[in-house]
């Protein structure tokens, strides 16, 4: 009896891509996690080129993607095209780009909006200057410098939590209840309201304080409840972006395939590996997108959500076609998740207790179960190379 040795050939071209979270995976604050440098030495060749397509996905939205790329330069030289902010999918909503839009958040909002393609963004401060009587909470606060603005607003874009919540809440409600004509009387019959697009739904975020701090998701809860209290109707979102949104992963999928095409890798990208440290965003989002891919692949000739929503179907086929077939979640233990202190996930009640997702995302306990748990990002890269039988030249 002879034993036949089966040799499995190693793959030298990638059929997979990496979606890396940043905070808690690559860095802690401004300090690089040691395993990240080791991991990235395995991901590039001697010329510094990536051996596999890589996208860095963050829920941050208060800066330009080039700034985030610069912050990672001490680990590895990357281009801004590899960085995906929570607001990056707004590039695909081209039908809003030439119109006047109200933007809420903090940071260089006008620069961010214009970089995304919006030609007529207006900040809350600019709107307040034009309509000083609308913001009356702080009686000692002087109105801003009057500027010439649009007469009608066609949509509201929520980039992140603002500094002055009361001002932003008031003026956004004004715009919604007047169909984009702030300063006019409210008309409750104007429903549905003008489109609202929101980025980053994190209810809380981990800071240097002993307890988590309010995030943009908390601001959204305030806005939703004020709107419903006044009108008796639900605030509707045209789109929700940022992890765990399917739209975010679909856009990241598109960026992965664009990198592969640019490098002229002929092998189709079949599997995405989302590496993160947060059960509620990274793991939940990756598993949710994997479920979407499985349902999409089971239906032939089905029109995707994004084809229906983005740009009225124009220019969206490139985003929706030839998507990956799987998205696997890989949880690392260098950030938010700590295997020694984490709430046990053995009951539905305990999982629901730690879920702080947006109201439009139905909680499913199965979606917080990672496919793999590893100590750090270096172990994640080793595991994935092994799973893919990948050995680049």
From TrEMBL:
Keywords: Signal. It comes from the Eukaryota. Signal peptide: none annotated. The keyword tRNA processing does not apply. The keyword Signal applies. GO terms for cellular component: mitochondrion. InterPro entries: CDP-alcohol_PTase-I, HAD-like_sf, HAD-SF_hydro_IIA, HAD-SF_hydro_IIA_CECR5, HAD_sf. GO terms for biological process: glycerophospholipid biosynthetic process. Belongs to the HAD-like hydrolase superfamily. This is Haloacid dehalogenase-like hydrolase domain-containing 5. It comes from Meleagris gallopavo (Wild turkey). The lineage of its organism: Eukaryota, Metazoa, Chordata, Craniata, Vertebrata. The gene is LOC100542184.
């Amino acid at each position: 009896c002879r034993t036949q040795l089966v040799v499995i050939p190693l793959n030298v071209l990638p059929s997979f891509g990496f979606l890396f979270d940043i905070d808690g995976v690559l860095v802690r604050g401004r300090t690089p996690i040691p395993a990240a440098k080791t991991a990235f030495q395995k991901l590039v060749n001697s010329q510094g080129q990536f051996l596999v397509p890589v996208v860095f996905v963050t829920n941050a939205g208060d800066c330009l993607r080039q700034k985030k790329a610069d912050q990672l330069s001490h680990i590895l030289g990357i281009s801004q095209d590899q960085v995906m902010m929570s607001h990056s999918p707004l590039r695909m909503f081209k039908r809003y780009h030439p119109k006047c839009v109200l933007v809420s958040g903090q940071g260089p909002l006008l620069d961010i909006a214009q970089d995304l393609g919006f030609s007529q963004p207006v900040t809350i401060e600019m709107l307040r200057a034009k309509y000083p009587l609308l913001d009356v909470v702080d009686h000692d606060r002087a109105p801003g410098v009057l500027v010439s603005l649009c007469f009608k607003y066609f949509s509201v874009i929520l980039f992140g939590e603002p500094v002055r919540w009361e001002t932003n809440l008031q003026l956004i409600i004004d715009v919604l209840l007047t169909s984009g004509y702030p300063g006019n009387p409210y008309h409750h019959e104007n429903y549905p309201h003008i489109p609202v697009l929101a980025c980053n739904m994190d209810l809380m975020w981990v800071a240097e304080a002993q307890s988590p701090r309010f995030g943009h998701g908390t601001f959204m809860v305030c806005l939703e409840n004020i709107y419903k209290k006044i009108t008796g109707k639900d605030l509707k979102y045209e789109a929700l972006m940022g992890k765990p949104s399917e739209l975010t992963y679909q856009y990241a999928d598109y960026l992965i395939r664009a990198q592969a095409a640019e490098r002229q890798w002929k092998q189709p990208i079949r599997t995405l590996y989302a590496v993160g440290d947060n059960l509620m965003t990274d793991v939940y989002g990756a598993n949710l997108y994997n479920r979407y891919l499985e349902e999409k692949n089971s239906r032939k000739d089905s029109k995707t959500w994004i084809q229906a929503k983005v740009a009225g179907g124009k220019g969206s086929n490139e985003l929706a076609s030839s998507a990956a077939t799987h998205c696997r979640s890989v949880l690392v233990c260098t950030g938010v998740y700590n295997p020694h202190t984490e709430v046990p996930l053995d009951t539905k009640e305990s999982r629901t207790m730690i879920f702080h997702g947006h109201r439009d995302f139905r909680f499913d306990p199965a979606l917080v179960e990672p496919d793999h748990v590893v100590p750090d990002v270096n172990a994640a890269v080793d595991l994935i190379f092994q799973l893919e039988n990948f050995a680049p030249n």
